[in-house]
Amino acid sequence: MLKSQSLAPESRERLSRMQAMDLSDISRERTLVDLAVARARVLDLTFEIDRAAAELAALRAELPEPSPTFQPVNPKGRGSQATLGLSRLISWRRSSGEGVVQWHVDEICGELPARSKRGIEQMVRRSDSWILSISGWVVPKKDSSTYTSARLLMAGSAGVISRQASIHLRDDVAAHFGNPAFAMSGFRFEVPMSELEDGFYTLHLLAFSEASGESRVQLGRVELV
Amino acid sequence: MDSSKYSLEELLILFDKENKKVIDLVRRLSGIKMEIAHIKRELGYAEEPVSRS
After folding, report:
1. What is the largest CA-CA distance in chain A?
2. Whether residue A165 sits in one domain with residue A102
3. pLDDT for A37
4. A90 min Cα distance to partner chain B (Å)
5. By residue range, what is the domain housing residue A22?
6. b/e per residue, A106-138, with b = 16+ CB within 10 A?
7. pTM beyond 0.80, yes or no
8. For B18, which residue in chain A has the nearest alpha carbon?
9. What is the average pLDDT across A149-165?
10. In whole angstroms, what is the distance from residue B11 CA to residue A35 CA?
11. Number of helices (H) and strands (E), helices first, in chain A?
12. A140 and A30 share one domain
């Protein structure tokens, strides 16, 4: 401090600028380290969630049938929820749940997607994130009970990827519709980028409620680049 | 990621986004674990002993 006070004003100013630059460089390095740690943590948590979700799916399979009113979408009985294929997706296209489902996608990889009559349209850059995340809410139009589970289908050129949703509390949705049963209407899907190839994916949401069974709706399209 | 393309402010925004993802994933994992515990109870599986360490 004494040393710098003995310097000429212009030298003091230059020293001050250099110190500020050094601090900025240190902050930058520190932020890069923090960013790397956060990304590694995201990856670890994603794998941990995948393992936990697999365990959950196995446990759910042990549970008795949820309801005798449950009607499978495919009346011919081809495939199952565990082995979702293109044939089943085609059958959903024929028996669309459009008009009975109200939904909104809040974000895809942190960005609000554009929505038109054809649904959402969003371009996602692979380099921006480790995972493709999709969050929003879904409620039935007619029934008072909310959906208890949801599944996302991503139909791309390489086939169909299926993911179970995590269900979240959405007090705002319940308040908006004036229906407390809609409090758990939030959904979130996450798919590691490593599982996805570049290209277009059509997104379908399959929602289940004990009152109305399964409903499916086409959310729109995502382009991964 | 080529970090040289980003300014300190942009890096801080990226870090903030990643941090939010971590928080969300931790919440999600916690929710799945709670659901697993709930189904295990429903299926009559013995509770795993809680470590006191």
Report:
1. 90
2. yes
3. 93
4. 31
5. 2-61
6. bebbeeebeeeeebbebebeeeebbbbbbbbbb
7. no
8. A38
9. 84
10. 8
11. 4, 10
12. no
Residues of chain B contacting residue A31, judged by C-beta atoms under 8 Å apart: 8, 11-12, 15
End-to-end Cα spacing for chain B: 40
CATH code of the domain containing A160: 2.60.40.10
Interface of chain A toward chain B, CB-CB under 8 angstroms? 24, 27-28, 31-32, 34-35, 38-39, 41-42, 45-46, 48-49, 52-53, 55-56, 59-60, 62-63, 110, 127, 129, 131, 133, 166-168, 188, 190
Can you tell me the mean pLDDT for A173-189?
83
Which segments in chain B show pLDDT lower than 70? 1-3, 46-53
Cβ contact (<8 Å) for A166 and B18? no
Please compute the mean of the pLDDT values over residues A19-29 and round it to a whole number: 73
Q: Which residues of chain A does B41 touch, with a Cβ-Cβ cutoff of 8 Å?
A: none
Task: Name the domain count of chain A.
Answer: 2
Cross-chain residue pair B25–A49, CB shorter than 8 Å: yes
| ipTM value | 0.82
Is a pLDDT exceeding 60 seen at residue A180? Answer: yes
pLDDT band at A5 (very low <50, low <70, confident <90, very high): low
DSSP secondary-structure letter at A221?
A: E
